[in-house]
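Ticket #4471: structure export looks truncated?
Reporter: QA, pipeline team
Priority: medium

Steps to reproduce: submit the single chain below to the structure queue and open the exported record.
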Amino acid sequence: MAPKILAETDDWILTVAGIPVLLPPPGVPYDSDDQPSPEDMGINDPNSIIYVNLRAKNVPEKFNERLKQLESMLNLTHQWLDIHAGIQTGRRKKEGQLPSDSSDESSWKRSDYRVKVVDTLLSENCAWIYNPHREDYSKYINVRKASFHLELLTNMIAGLALPTGIQERLEAGFKALGDLIVQTQTTSEHRAVWTLFHVFTYDSARDAMNASLRNINYSISQEMKNVAVGKAHIDYVDINFSFFQRDYNFNEDTWNHVKPEIEKFINDIATDQVRNPIIDDIPV
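Actual output as written to the record:
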């Protein structure tokens, strides 16, 4: 059987439009040639994929085992996504559809493609995570230049209960991406940024623990770079900013069915280059 070509979901990832995401038919194992190298996994490329695990402090101890099960499901999921992104990147490099050199332009193109892979898989081929509800946002930002990255972050995480500490850590991560853009010589194209939040909260009225997933996507544009580096004399930033988010559900029965296969896949590939999530507690 021919590999499955997944549908395009990346109208916001302009740099890799037309470069496909392919998966083998179900049940077909990967061979040694599919082992992704650290370079395939992006060790030397900009890290534009961010995972965040947040857990409420008030979850009763009786839910500890349940919490571990859910955290395991989501952590294995992002390992699965990361490894597939590395495999797909390695294949596209061998085919000549992605570059292999170390230039800024090539590094960002590979990073954008990894974003495309994890976004496509999570949206279309992750059977235990489903029903994404997408909302598109356009914000007008007018702030002091020094507060620009924090204002972007604040708009994107509206509605999520986040502690001050994690917000500062996230801001540092987003600012680092912005700084990479500033250092990039080729500036004509947008660059994709992809974040997946895992949020665990306790509902005291129902005596139940809840888990939610929010995926936030945006692109760093030439206008944003101009604000950061090309208009150094300006104290205030005026910019229109667009992003979209998806909120997902998950089916634990499906997960329990596929978990052994997912674990075997991860263990067989045996890569330790996956991205570790940012972890913190929600003070509620």
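Status: closed, not a bug. The export was complete when the record was re-opened. Leaving a note from the reviewer for reference: Helices lie at 38-41, 64-95, 104-124, 148-156, 164-183, 222-230, 252-269.
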